[in-house]
Amino acid sequence: MANTAADPDSTHGAPDGTRRDFMFLATGAGLAVGAGALAWPFVASMAPDAETIAAGAPLEVDLSPIQEGQIVNVFWRGKLIFVRSRSEKEIKEAAAVPLSDLIDPQPDAARVKDGHAKWLVVYGNCTHLGCVPIGHQGQYEGWSCPCHGSLYDTSGRVRRGPAPANLPIPPYLFESETKIRIGEEGGKAVA
């Protein structure tokens, strides 16, 4: 019994080494957590910083899930962009508008890529004071600015002011029939 009193593990009926094993595992876990905490800043430093992201690497947009008539909002370089799938009716109506009826005359064909009249890609801020117009609103079924009443048609052309200009077109190209890349023109990234 003298040995039992000298060995603290045996006084509780625990087998030899249980506390030692626990201490070994606890120390190992602590070292692993510490190593992870030390490594984290180095791993995080490899990610691009906010300025690089804001500088605007090109953005790929998959067009396949976008339904006819739907407007999808995406962000590139911190700016809102509308990607609209236009119906044949919307395309025909936009093409038929006399340029003399427009505040900022521009034919519909100049606002879309050749062979892709179905897809309209424009910046999503009113050219008056930068408000965000609401899609499928107003008498032209394009966009309506709720703040000051500007109206845009389905080609993003201003039809009623105070906005002085059409919704601008960002640089983009078609990578395939169902994918665009915003931030590139002619295969080159926009600086």
Describe what you observe in this structure.
This protein is of the alpha+beta class. It has two domains: 2-44; 51-189, Rieske [2Fe-2S] iron-sulphur domain (Rieske Iron-sulfur Protein, 3-layer Sandwich), CATH 2.102.10. Helix content is 27%, strand content 25%. It is built from five helices and twelve strands. Strands 5-6-7-8 form a four-stranded antiparallel β-sheet, with no helix packed on it. It has a three-stranded antiparallel β-sheet with strand order 1-10-9, with no helix packed on it. Strands 2-3-4 form a three-stranded antiparallel β-sheet, with no helix packed on it. A hairpin with a 2-residue loop joins strand 2 and strand 3 (79-85). The mean pLDDT is 84.
SSE diagram, text form:
Blueprint: H1 2-6, H2 8-11, H3 18-44, H4 50-55, E1 59-62, E2 71-76, E3 79-85, H5 88-96, E4 119-123, E5 134-137, E6 142-144, E7 151-152, E8 158-160, E9 172-176, E10 179-182, E11 184-185, E12 188-189
Antiparallel strand pairs: 1-10, 2-3, 3-4, 5-6, 6-7, 7-8, 9-10, 11-12
Labels describing this entry:
2 domains; three-stranded antiparallel sheet; four-stranded antiparallel sheet; Rieske Iron-sulfur Protein; 5 helices
Number of domains: 2
Extract low-pLDDT stretches: none
> Can you say what the CATH homologous superfamily of the largest domain is?
Rieske [2Fe-2S] iron-sulphur domain
Distance between the termini: 83 Å
The quaternary organization reads as single chain
Largest sheet: number of strands, sense, barrel closure: 4 strands, antiparallel
Written as H for each helix and E for each strand, in order along the chain, the element string is HHHHEEEHEEEEEEEEE
**Into which percent range does the helicity of residues fall?**
25-40%
